[in-house]
Amino acid sequence: MSRGLAATTPEEYLAAAPADQALALRTVLGRLLDALPGAQTVISYGIIVVRVDGRAFVGLSAARTHCSLHLMSTVAAASLAEVLPEGRLVGATVHFSADAPLGPATVRTIVEARRHVLD
Predict the structure, then answer these.
(1) SS3 string of 62-95?
(2) Cα separation of 46 and 89, whole Å?
(3) Is there a domain that residue 5 lies in?
(4) Full-model pTM
(5) How many CB atoms neighbour CB 50 within 10 A?
(6) Residue 82 located in a structural domain
(7) What is the mean pLDDT of each run of 10 residues along the chain (119 residues)?
(8) How many domains does the chain have?
(9) Is beta strand 40-44 parallel, antiparallel or unpaired with respect to 88-90?
(10) Are 87 and 99 in contact (CB under 8 A)?
(11) The CATH number of the domain where 71 resides is what?
């Protein structure tokens, strides 16, 4: 379950997260934004949400024992089930540890799977 961090902006969320998780989330968020030029970040449903063309694309959150990348699509999750190079797929969420943020290739794989659902 995601931490109930009191935040109205992504920066506030990251400032409220434990330092190791904040660093991992910043790393993955930077990789997402590199792969999604023009994307915006907001707080929605208590987590960081990356929006593309005004639509929720993925979300990021800190949980008690891990970090999460919320795919916001069961179809995208199903397409990643056998090909996700790192992280652990749980439902439509990719769990990763603070000491092992998702790498650039994994983030690109996730972005492509999620884009495919939007097309």
Answers:
(1) EECCCEEEECCCHHHHHHHCCCCCCCEEECCEEE
(2) 21
(3) no
(4) 0.93
(5) 24
(6) yes
(7) 73 96 98 97 95 96 96 95 94 97 97 85
(8) 1
(9) unpaired
(10) no
(11) 3.90.1150.200
